């Protein structure tokens, strides 16, 4: 028999919880239902009178369009590249900042600071101050060395976006991994040193396995966020040249707000939701197996 939800003093808490639960449910389900509905409709804002049910035509058009596969490939490269930089860099920085040295507290604060910079602001900083082919810091360094400045967003657009996103998310990985590393019992490392283990052996056989769970958590959280990267691309490359830096999120934006094709954009949104849930389910199960081990 179902019992009512009761608080610490026997008060039925359901009437107090229900409004927020209902609002949250509506907030989640209404946009999803509308996206599913429009994905089966022919609906273009430029000609709203030509609308109607088209079945799976929007999905068929997208799946046979080369731009979708280019965007998905760019999404995978973007996510994989940023994950590689943040995980490797965050692990090495965590090992470094776990040591006590002069100014270590200030160094930790400065290392974490980029995470609190808004994506649009960080993209503008990299675009106009660091990677600008004429007035940027990289251009000045190249000219000082007698080299030709690189037009990063024209010649290496996707790599440039990877660098910008990695710079912003590296502090997040550092914060999580450093917290995990500080929970390691230093007696284990001291015992390994007494047994003749060198720094590399201690890192490989003691430190890295201890950080394994934290690394998986970082991968899961960052992957979910990286699948929806938009601001950095919008501010710097605009998805170009061509589709060279267009990911799935930016492709949906192009279809919806530049081509006004709501039906096709909604179909792309459904595909993105399915892919994101598949990835999230895989990562959650992987972490759950690790916790049960």
Automatic annotation (TrEMBL):
<protein>
    <submittedName>
        <fullName>Sugar ABC transporter permease</fullName>
    </submittedName>
</protein>
<feature type="transmembrane region" description="Helical">
    <location>
        <begin position="109"/>
        <end position="126"/>
    </location>
</feature>
<keyword id="KW-1133">Transmembrane helix</keyword>
<keyword id="KW-0813">Transport</keyword>
<feature type="transmembrane region" description="Helical">
    <location>
        <begin position="16"/>
        <end position="38"/>
    </location>
</feature>
<keyword id="KW-0812">Transmembrane</keyword>
<comment type="similarity">
    <text>Belongs to the binding-protein-dependent transport system permease family.</text>
</comment>
<dbReference type="GO" id="GO:0005886">
    <property type="term" value="C:plasma membrane"/>
</dbReference>
<dbReference type="InterPro" id="IPR000515">
    <property type="entry name" value="MetI-like"/>
</dbReference>
<keyword id="KW-1003">Cell membrane</keyword>
<feature type="domain" description="ABC transmembrane type-1">
    <location>
        <begin position="72"/>
        <end position="283"/>
    </location>
</feature>
<feature type="transmembrane region" description="Helical">
    <location>
        <begin position="202"/>
        <end position="227"/>
    </location>
</feature>
<keyword id="KW-0472">Membrane</keyword>
<feature type="transmembrane region" description="Helical">
    <location>
        <begin position="76"/>
        <end position="97"/>
    </location>
</feature>
<dbReference type="GO" id="GO:0055085">
    <property type="term" value="P:transmembrane transport"/>
</dbReference>
<feature type="transmembrane region" description="Helical">
    <location>
        <begin position="265"/>
        <end position="288"/>
    </location>
</feature>
<feature type="transmembrane region" description="Helical">
    <location>
        <begin position="156"/>
        <end position="181"/>
    </location>
</feature>
<dbReference type="Pfam" id="PF00528">
    <property type="entry name" value="BPD_transp_1"/>
</dbReference>
<dbReference type="InterPro" id="IPR035906">
    <property type="entry name" value="MetI-like_sf"/>
</dbReference>
């Amino acid at each position: 028999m179902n019992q009512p939800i009761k608080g610490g003093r026997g008060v039925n808490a359901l009437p107090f919880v229900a409004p927020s639960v209902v609002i949250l449910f509506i907030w989640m389900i209404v946009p999803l239902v509308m996206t599913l509905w429009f994905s089966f409709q022919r609906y273009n804002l430029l000609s709203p009178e030509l609308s109607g049910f088209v079945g799976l035509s929007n999905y068929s058009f997208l799946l046979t369009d080369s731009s979708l596969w280019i965007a998905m490939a760019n999404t995978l490269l973007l996510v994989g590249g940023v994950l590689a930089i943040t995980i490797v860099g965050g692990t090495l920085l965590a090992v470094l900042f776990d040591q006590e040295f002069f100014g270590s507290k200030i160094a930790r604060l400065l290392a974490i600071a980029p995470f609190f910079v808004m994506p649009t602001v960080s993209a503008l900083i990299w675009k106009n101050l660091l990677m600008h082919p004429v007035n940027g810091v990289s251009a000045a360094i190249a000219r000082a060395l007698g080299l030709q400045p690189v037009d990063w967003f024209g010649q290496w657009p996707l790599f440039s976006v990877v660098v910008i996103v990695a710079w912003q998310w590296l502090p997040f990985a550092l914060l999580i991994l450093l917290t995990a590393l500080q929970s390691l019992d230093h007696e284990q490392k001291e015992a390994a040193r007494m047994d003749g283990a060198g720094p590399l052996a201690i890192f490989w056989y003691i430190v890295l396995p201890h950080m394994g769970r934290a690394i998986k958590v970082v991968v899961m959280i960052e992957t979910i966020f990286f699948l929806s990267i938009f601001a950095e691309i919008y501010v710097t490359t605009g998805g170009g040249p061509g589709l060279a830096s267009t990911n799935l999120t930016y492709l949906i934006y192009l279809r919806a707000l530049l081509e006004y094709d709501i039906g096709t954009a909604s179909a792309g949104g459904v595909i993105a939701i399915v892919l994101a849930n598949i990835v999230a389910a895989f990562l959650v199960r992987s972490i759950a197996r690790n916790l049960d081990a």
